[in-house]
């Protein structure tokens, strides 16, 4: 099932949802997939320097993990096509315009944005403005 690829339609349909949990990024130098599995990561990426895992903050705290920063997770409810062009750029650009860092993860169905937890409300405001702007665009003739 392919998702939406038209940028205007995507931006008008973001429907951002904030997770009730906070998340942190951890690293496991020289690790392979599966390391840190006991923390139930929601995302991972293997880099030359090690394995990065994204876990709920409460789980990291309970395990005595060290991390820098805590992040709110905003998931976009629109089913975006993995080959859609410009969605990540539009979101990152809008958030950057308000001084909000964004770590964006594209999954099969949806895009997910990690923002500093202290800026979650601001990020939702920016995304809501982006939606409103694209819902009022006149049709191209």
TrEMBL record:
Gene3D superfamilies: VC0802-like (3.30.2130.10). InterPro entries: ACT-like_dom_sf, CASTOR_ACT_dom, DUF2241. SUPFAM superfamilies: ACT-like. Residues 71-128 form the CASTOR ACT domain. Residues 2-69 form the DUF2241 domain. Pfam families: ACT_3, ACT_7. PANTHER family: BLR5128 PROTEIN (PTHR39199:SF1). This is ACT domain protein.
């Amino acid at each position: 099932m392919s998702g939406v690829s038209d940028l205007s339609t995507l931006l008008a349909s973001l429907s951002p949802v904030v997770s009730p949990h906070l998340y942190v990024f951890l690293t496991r130098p020289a690790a392979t997939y599966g390391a840190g599995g006991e923390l139930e990561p929601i995302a991972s990426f293997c880099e030359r320097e090690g394995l990065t895992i994204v876990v709920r903050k409460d789980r990291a705290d309970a395990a005595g993990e060290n991390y820098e920063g805590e992040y709110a997770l905003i998931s976009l409810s629109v089913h975006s096509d993995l080959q859609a062009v410009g969605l990540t750029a539009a979101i990152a650009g809008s958030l950057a315009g308000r001084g909000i860092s964004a770590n964006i993860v594209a999954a099969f169905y949806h895009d997910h944005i990690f923002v500093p937890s202290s800026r979650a409300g601001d990020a939702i405001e920016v995304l809501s403005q982006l939606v409103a702007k694209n819902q009022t665009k006149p049709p191209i003739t």
